Amino acid sequence: MQISRRGQVPPFEVMMILDQVAALRAGGREVLSLCAGEPSQGAPTDVREAAIRLHSSSDPLGYSGPLGTIALKEAIAGHYRRWYGLDIEPESVGITTGASGAFVLMFLAAFDIGDRVAVARPGYPAYANVLRSLGMDVVELAAGAATGFVPTTEMLDEAVAKGGGLHGLVLASPANPTGSMIKHEEFGELIDWCRLNDVRLISDEIYHGITYPAPSTDDGSTTGASTTGPPTSQPQTGHPQTSSGRDRGTCAWSLDRSSVVVSSFSKYWGMTGWRLGWALIPEDLKASVEALAGNIALCPPTPSQHAALAAFTQRSYDEADLAVAQFGKTRQLVFDRLPDLGWGPVAQADGAFYLWANIHDQLGKYPDSPSWCRALLEQSGVALVPGTDMDHVDGHDYVRLSFAAGPRTVAEALERIVAFQQF
Ligand SMILES: Cc1ncc(COP(=O)(O)O)c(C=O)c1O
Q1: N or C: at which end does the chain have fewer Cβ atoms within 10 angstroms?
Q2: Tell me, what's the pLDDT at 223?
Q3: What is the Å distance from ligand 1's center to 96 Cα?
Q4: Ligand 1 lined by 264 (C-beta under 6 Å)
Q5: Could you tell me where the beta strands, DSSP code E, fall in 97-218?
Q6: Residue range 218-235: average pLDDT?
Q7: Is the CB–ligand 1 distance for residue 37 below 6 Å?
Q8: CATH code for position 178
Q9: CB distance 241 to ligand 1 below 6 Å
């Protein structure tokens, strides 16, 4: 029997390592897992309580509309008013099965087979894998240490000069695996470039709200090619700052509503397993996205949609912000240990909860980061992700360390890594 070539995408290494961690733990090993992009605090209290109330309600929790309930679309529109000062019609919001579900819908609606879509390398592997399986031609932009791990318009010009025009660009700011953020002005330049070149921007804003002030140096000043410093101005529309001066990230719809915004309840609200995300859908894609959504998944999960309404209470925002402050402390702890680890260059981790680090000088007897990570897991019980998952060209020198696990786990893991590297 035939099996399709399009289905033969590489497995998502992180999920495989998680399986390995589970198997080791089942065998009685104590493993510190710094693999998953999964906040340890879980869903906000109000969301959990709403879910418990659902249990005893008489609501049959059947299908919703293909792109979700009106109530949740309205609540998400309210979130854009609250965070970005943007007025968004609830009808422009499409609720999806995680951000992951939104990508499939939006890629299908926006691009045809053979279309050229650019993604950053290193980057979240599912963009390229899903695009390829849908028949698009993936164009990689090598966004390394030289540009603070963010793509630039020069890279886009180069891609066009080399291989012809582009049809799409996928951006994430903050990004996975680097945590790098594109500065507001540079984000604007990228959007202008897309508009000028008739390129559809897909802006993955899943890590918005999980951002940090620039790390401080010994003299108290701030550093970082890809970081934004402490607040100097009042919030601007679409480019908001928190009361503590963190830049939450630029919303693409504050600059161009022909772009697609993708976001999720998974990260800021810690609701990974609830499988709920959304897209802001440009007018010209609405009809096809709605038809595709109804055919592919019928609707996003209804119980999660009901409970997620409680993600927008003041208490939920407060709890999520508290978790971000905790990530910030753990991040500082990681940066403080860098001299002992001997890793570098590293991305500044302006946002998200990952450290993307070059470990070339610490590979020792291991030829590359996958074998180094395997040995670290077997010998020291610490699970990191080898960089090859996110960068198939340079990733053999890199690892991704998730500091979402919390300060105690991360501190202990760093201790073990330092000891592992001494042998
Ligand atoms: C950059 C990025 N986009 C999207 C996703 C998928 O998230 P979701 O759980 O909403 O499907 C992830 C998950 O790790 C991610 O890191």
Answers
A1: N
A2: 42
A3: 12
A4: yes
A5: 116-121, 137-142, 168-172, 200-204
A6: 37
A7: yes
A8: 3.40.640.10
A9: no
